[in-house]
Amino acid sequence: MTKKTILRLAGAYLLTLMAAWAVLWWGFGSGWIRVAPHDRVAGPIILTIAAAFVLFFLFAVICIGVWVHGDARRRGMEPLLWALIVILGPNFLGLVAYLVVRKPLRLPCPSCGQHMPEGASFCPHCRAPQRRLCSACQTPSPDDARFCPHCGAALPDTPPTPS
Ligand SMILES: [Zn+2]
Ligand SMILES: [Zn+2]
What we know:
Number of strands: 2
Bound molecules: zinc ion
Structural class: mainly alpha
Largest sheet: 2 strands, antiparallel
Number of domains: 2
Radius of gyration: 28 Å
Low-confidence stretches: none
Number of helices: 4
């Protein structure tokens, strides 16, 4: 999350809190919310604090959902599905489940550091080969192959060298 996003969230939170406060004051002033005379000072304060807690909890859940959405996308999982599971799951059980089953982060390209799609032979950002290339036909081969699966030529034992 960037600094701008955090500032925006904090702003939205404060605005909602002020709106809740205004509604409460109007409610007490117009007699819409009825309290005993000695509660006229303590009542609004307690209600404001309670509203702040509820709003804080909602914001925490939304922030976690946004983080899971981005994290799942980086790991090649279904982002929206996991965000919903984490937000709607009771007692943060969805978050626990997500942390248990999430896939490892995709390895970045050794040449340019960008994230690679799973099983890619070439980096889509800088074209660096991610597997050994056959010297005869330039076909990428699996890491443990000793001979080219395409033309049968013997493969060098050297790991891929990013160009
Ligand atoms: Zn690259
Ligand atoms: Zn070959």
